[in-house]
Amino acid sequence: MTRLLRAFAIVLIWLGVLWGQGSFAQDAASADIAQNLQTWDEVASLAEAAIDRNIASNERFERLRAEIAEYRADFTAGTRINAERIATLRGQIDALGPVPETGDEPTDISSRRAQLEEQLEMLQAPVRVSEEAFRRADGLIREIDTIIRERQADRLLSLGPSPLNPIHWPKAIEDLFGILGAVGQETASITDAAQMGQLKGNAPLVLFLLALALALIIRGRAWAGMALNTLRRWGGRGSGVWRFLVSLLRIFLPLTGLLILTHALRLTGLMGTRIDQILEALPAFGFVLLGFRWLAERLFSKIDEEALIPLAPSKRTAARFYMLILSILFVSRGVFELFLGFTDVDAATDAVLTFPIVVLIGMTLASIGNLLRGWSVDSDPDAETAPRGTGLARVVRLLGTALIVVSVVSPLMAAVGYAEAGNALLYPTLVSLLILGFVLTLQRFSADVYGLITGEGDGARDALVPVLVGFALVVASLPLLALAWGARVADLTEVWATFSRGFQLGNTRISPGDFLTFAVIFVAGYSVTRLVQSTLRVNVLPKTKIDIGGQNAIVSGLGYVGIFLAAILAITGAGIDLSSLAIVAGALSVGIGFGLQTIVSNFVSGIILLIERPISEGDWIEVGGQMGYVRDISVRSTRIETFDRTDVIVPNADLVSGTVTNYTRGNKVGRLIVSVGVAYGTDTRRVEGILREIAEDQPMVLRNPPPLILFNNFGADSLEFEIRVILRDVNWIMAVKNDINHAIAKRFSDEDIEIPFAQRDVWLRNPETLKDAKS
After folding, report:
1. Do 297 and 320 touch, CB atoms closer than 8 A?
2. What is each CA distance from 139 to 74, 133, 496, 497, in whole angstroms?
3. 155: Cβ contacts below 8 Å, ≥ 6 apart
4. Which among 293, 451, 508, 570 would be 20 to 30 A from 237, CA to CA?
5. How far is 181 from 186, CA to CA, in rounded Å?
6. How far is Cα 338 from Cα 330, in angstroms, rounded to an integer?
7. Cis ω on the peptide bond leading into residue 387 (within 30° of 0)?
8. Distance of CA 670 to the CA centre of its chain
9. Is the model more confident about 561 or about 195?
């Protein structure tokens, strides 16, 4: 009673607060939560009592947990009521500034502060009530989950009767024949006149449906196989996609026949309760058999190109056979569970009747595991990279080892008496094997679809997109794997609820919606930035007089600014408040500054290079002993392509602080000096005229200023001349030098001008010593 009165008082206060605010939308949301509070206390008290007694069944706890989870979701929404108005009031209070330490504050500011704080307290009242109720509901859910998990653990670790104990065998056989006898009595009791009349009335339809069902069941797979063989002969673009889709007919045609068969048998009106349950389960059993076989044909196909796990042909045949045996045993286990559910049997009967199936499944899994462990990919020892499929081969071999271990451990646990633990290990392993095989099949299908869209065909299987799709499929299969290994649906919904509520970052709670908003705004801003960059690069800047280096600088700078603005807009649009992280960021910035000072220096230098542009893309520069063309300027480094066609990565800080020679900055004009020597006694004026003619004949040499021919020096072996010319494009300096040297050699040969080579006279000071040594 006290709790009810307290809840009622809280509701009245809450409604009064809502009345004073005057916001219709907020009043409606708050009123819904206030209404929930009226019944929440009763539900919470009931849950606390059930938890304290711990006598309710798991099903009752699950229903109670689901009800509490609904309340918790409402309270989560309640914590966000008036959020914008509360943020506004806090901003108004902050705008008034802190209260002076002396307490002497102007009256108008003091009264305004008090008024705002009063409004803030009123708005925060329902939020605080929702937070308190949320904490209570969340705690109750955790307690219920703990109880259920403890019960599951106790059941798995409980020691039951051993199926190897002969004392349990007679009772198990007696119970089995009793169940079969009860089913047989239902089939025998079909002499009722009303039932026979119904059968006669529906006989034509029943016969037609039976004929159609038998045709689909018996010939459905063969018809689908004929269609597959036709597609294989046609081949062509996208054949893998169509073969996959047509192969599904091997499941759906016989399964449709089973559905028609069960419907036809029910139309006879002769089915009893137990037989009707068998008919209801028959399509599910058929789907398991067909699905196992279809998956085996995809994983271990007879066609080498279609086999997802390319074992040797004989091993693939064996693997398909073992998968067929597994499907039969898996369905047999389901049939036993269905029959044993017709009556109450003790744990000993269940253990004795299901133990042979556990042993046979273990033996089959061991055989499959042995096949998988033998898979290896042929590799070339001289190859620099690993061959395709090496990673998958390692995973498959590891899976094979796990299957062998499970196939040994599970039957042993069941034989000892830990049947629940053995089953919890064996059957989830089998289901996980099926899920992973189906994921591998879907990944191949996605690769074929990508190849059909892009026109790459089978070559698309090695592309990045199918790999990413495969990763997404693995992530999507995790909930199924979790359910297979004993996780409850409530466990998965709890993970999703926790993820939906988000996490706390500073004073802001970030939810998946915030992440989605951030991603959408950032991607939109990034796309707009790239679109503007492309427009400027292709349509706008080429029509200006800005050089190519300046155009690249503008485009790159716009890209950095656009990405920065997109990030700021995305953070703001998502409502992420990072102000509370300013202190932490300031503390970390000191340490990061020391550790990243080189990177920061290069980054700042890159910005300077893009703004001042002492060098531009396409310039011929020399820095640090490296000479070549600038190919790319990023924010951290600059890539130079040398004349040897090698790339040299130079930190931007070296380009800003070091000495850089730029041969093409501003213009491409440059000087070429060619040295040549002639023999002593040659007419120097004649040589000068010949060299001037050779220089003026070169098309890359400028006429203004004219070529300069210098009689440079009286050398030790020749008269030394120099040709000094200005080229209109210095990038052709080596080609022009080559042409001038060829022209000099030809003209000097025609004019009988000698180009001397170095000669030395050796003078022996004491030649008589050599004669004495010779004698």
Report:
1. yes
2. 15, 10, 17, 14
3. 420
4. 293
5. 9
6. 13
7. no
8. 54
9. 561
Give the pLDDT score at 41.
85
Who wins on pLDDT, 765 or 332? Answer: 332
Longest dimension (CA), the chain: 150
- Do residues 390 and 341 touch, judged by C-beta distance below 8 A? no
DSSP assignments along 454-511, one per residue: HT-GGGGGGSHHHHHHHHHHHHHHHHHHHHHTT--HHHHHHHHHHHHH-EEETTEEE-
Report d(CA 363, CA 225) in Å as an integer: 31
Mean pLDDT value of segment 91-118: 82
SS3 state at 723: strand
pLDDT average, residue stretch 563-578: 77
Q: How sure is the predictor about 439, in pLDDT bands with cuts at 50, 70 and 90? A: very high
pLDDT value of residue 54: 87
Lowest mean pLDDT, pick from 276-285, 371-380, 581-590, 766-775? 581-590
Distance CA 54, CA 482 (A): 26
Half-sphere exposure for 321 (CA within 13 Å, toward CB): 8
Torsion of CA 693, 694, 699, 701, to 10 degrees: -80
Chain-centre distance of CA 573, in angstroms?
Answer: 25
Residues 516-539, mean pLDDT to the nearest whole number: 86
Whether 298 contacts 438, CB under 8 Å: no
Element (H, E) at 626: strand 626-633
Helix-helix angle 107-156:83-95, to 10 degrees: 140
